[in-house]
Amino acid sequence: MLTAYTKIDLTARLEQAPLINEPYLADRFLCPYFPPSIANAFAGEIPRHSLRRELIATRIVNEMVDLMGSVFVFNLGRDHGIDAEEALRAWLITADVLELPRRAAELKTNASELGAEAELGAFLGLERAARRACTWAIAHANPAEPLGATVGRFEPALRKLANEFESTLAGGERERFERTYRDLRAAVHHEQLAHELARLAFADHLLNVLSLAFARGSEPAQVARAYFGLSQRIEFAAIEGAIDAISSDDRWERRAARDLAAELAWARVQLCRLVLDGEVDGTGVPGKLGAPLRERRAAEVERLMGDLRALTSIGLPPLQVIVRALSRLASGT
Prior knowledge:
By secondary structure, this protein is mostly helical. It is built from 18 helices and no strands. The termini are far apart.
């Protein structure tokens, strides 16, 4: 019942939203609705079909709810202060950049080989990657850029970078990748699938790398080396893991944790810029930083990281302190 009413409500909203007029959606959802013979014979008329809005909206919502669940759009709206149209736009970008429909179809095709628990574990892995990537899309995807242009820019670049970024991982992030792979390998009992899902778990980081690479006109591989090289001295994996582990019924605490995650991501990208500009060394911070103030900030971060490692449990206050210290280091203030 919940799924049915969710689909009815979201479809009605999307039918009236400007997003439904994106030309990309006609190619992605409307043309495949018809048999290939009809789609080929009436390629010019299909985008003007009298029921195009209803058909496109229904197919988008069905795909999204079936993959992400009934409360996905509600949660995005609650967590990020956006409306349903913005949430659906973020989902569409995420779904196609990460090739989620193809991956989901392959999982269903191979379901008999995986078993019920393995299939569930794989779908949960897709869901986690999609949620993180949606956060990136909400924060960084240009709402004025056509959907097709955004997907066309990021999807092939992500596919290429996902196959080569592992060699750039360092410190705790290499350990996190290997741990994620082991957990998925135990869950899905399939080596190649576990490897693909482990790579996908880093999708939000890879998208940050690509955003920076496109903005600077740099090679993504070069940016990835600088971005992940920071983990040699700054334990981003430990900080992110501690933020993710915060679970509270208090909406203010949840909001504080989300804001910390966003601030940490910003600080990391800024530090990566400094590495690429040659203002700090390739391992991140200590070393010759050029400015005495930044030297002091770097020493403060290292001291706080030592204090954080000594804690038996990590709550919001220490995380707020260390993330703010990283922000000061990144901004040079």
